[in-house]
Design brief:
192 residues, mainly beta, 10% helix
Length: 192
Amino acid sequence: MMKHLAIFIEIAVALVSFSAAGPVKELKKRQYFQEDCSPEVTLVGDGNPHQNYFHQQLSENIDCSGDAQPCSVGESDSQSFTVGWSITTGPDDLEGWISGGFDVSETWTTGNTYNCGVAPGQVGCIWYKTAHTAYTVHRVAPDFCGIPSSPSVIRGPNTNNAGGGYYCVIGTCRSKGEGYWDSYQPAGGPHD
């Protein structure tokens, strides 16, 4: 009997010591303790995939206006650029990149081993079209974490630049490294 009384007193002292350390938070009905509230980035529905194209001038302008012979612009006149994924709309606080199941990568490097012929009296340059798949994603977290789920659109370069490539421009060259996004955005994932 004395042994049981001693154990009871030890438990009571431990409980008093524990509650004296600070207030004990109570969980409300249907509330659960969750240590990890980090959200997961997932597609919204099928992701509404569509193609986006980034055009960039790789070379210097080659002016053949004073030449009687054709000239060319090639590797020695151009530079390789790396194009990465981006968030085009929505919050830019996503925790990392996802492929969404599409055949895309985080980066693509253009290369610079291309050649364009330029006729006498013309100015020419090399341009590159990097094809991207744009898809809608959002952050998903357990409801009790209080993290909002706002949609964003990720643009990832297509693997092996499917649907893109280099091309020659005559007469309307800009400056090496200059680029722009094309407004033509066909529906669907990567395609040639």
